[in-house]
């Protein structure tokens, strides 16, 4: 149980600090003087990447709870 907790914390820390821009987006946005658009694009990519994981996690949680309920 302790190992799973540390793995989760490590995953969250690495995920939060990830730069999610592709090479072409990075090249175009680095030439811009203000980095506001680059940060917005990066946040948008991370947001879009997070949604499928939340959906799959939610479905897995519902399946786990229903399976656990049937055992009782």
Describe the protein in words.
This protein has 72 residues and is mainly α. The chain has one domain (2-71). The protein is 82% helix and 0% strand. The longest helix has 36 residues, at 36-71. The model has no long low-confidence stretch (mean pLDDT 77).
Provide the descriptors you would attach to this structure in a database record:
single chain; 72 residues; mainly alpha; 3 helices; elongated
Helices and strands, in N-to-C order?
A: HHH
Our Rg estimate from Cα atoms comes to 18 Å
Percentage of β-strand residues = under 5%
Distance between the termini: 22 Å
The helicity comes to over 70%
What best-fitting shape do the alpha-carbon axes yield? elongated
Could you give a short account of the major beta sheet? Answer: none
Number of strands: 0
- Spans of at least 5 consecutive residues with low confidence: none
List the helices and strands and how they pair.
Layout: H1 2-16, H2 23-30, H3 36-71
Short synopsis of the structure:
With 72 residues, this protein is mainly α. The protein is built from 3 helices and no strands.
């Amino acid at each position: 149980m302790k190992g799973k907790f540390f793995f989760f914390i490590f995953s969250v820390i690495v995920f939060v600090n990830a730069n999610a821009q592709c090479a072409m987006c990075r090249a175009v946005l680095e030439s811009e003087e203000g980095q506001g658009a680059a940060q917005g694009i990066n946040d948008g990519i991370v947001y879009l990447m997070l949604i499928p994981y939340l959906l799959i996690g939610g479905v897995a949680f519902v399946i786990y709870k229903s399976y656990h309920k049937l055992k009782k």
